[in-house]
Design a protein that fits this description.
2 helices; about 160 residues; 4-stranded antiparallel beta sheet
Length: about 160
């Protein structure tokens, strides 16, 4: 097992609709690339702030019906942070995990991969793992990312 990226960061609502890309050099061919990802908090607990955000979005994205829809704003709760992961090798796109769980273990192997990723050779060269920051609705959102290579499935570990 070899750790290729081990990082963490803090995000604010200003970071919404951005991407953070980490690049690493795969110096030797491997059979399996693993990505462990975690962020918190998942949901906005502040009821009044939730109402404000939901109402604002309804007015912006459904201007004809927004006011009426805002009467039932609570049905749109909880309001959630959403960060997702994608990966590219030196030849291009290898997949993405646009999922809602705040803790994920993803992998790309030469004969299998997590759903959304393309199995195949883990080739030498530059790779990129991108954190897509779709929405940060809490004052702060903390994430951790660990990318590691390991040839065996039983190498899986709790890196975060």
């Amino acid at each position: 097992m070899s750790i290729l990226i081990l990082t963490e960061g803090n995000l604010t609502p200003f970071c919404s609709r951005t991407q953070i890309t980490y690049t690493f050099d795969m110096v030797k061919q491997s059979r399996r690339l693993n990505i462990d990802f975690f962020y918190q908090p998942k949901t906005l607990e502040d009821r009044e702030k939730s109402r404000e955000l939901i109402t604002k979005c309804l007015m912006e994205f459904a201007p004809e019906d927004g006011e009426k829809m805002a009467e039932n704003w609570e049905r749109y709760r909880p309001v959630c942070n959403l960060l997702t992961i994608s990966a590219d090798d030196s030849m291009g796109f290898r997949g993405c995990a646009h999922r809602h769980p705040q803790k994920q273990h993803l992998f790309i192997g030469d004969d299998s991969a997590s759903p959304g990723f393309i199995p195949g050779e883990i080739t030498r060269g530059l790779w990129k793992v991108t954190v897509s920051v779709h929405a940060v609705v809490t004052e702060n959102c903390h994430y951790k990312l660990c990318v590691w290579e390991g040839d065996r499935k039983d190498d899986e570990m709790d890196t975060l």
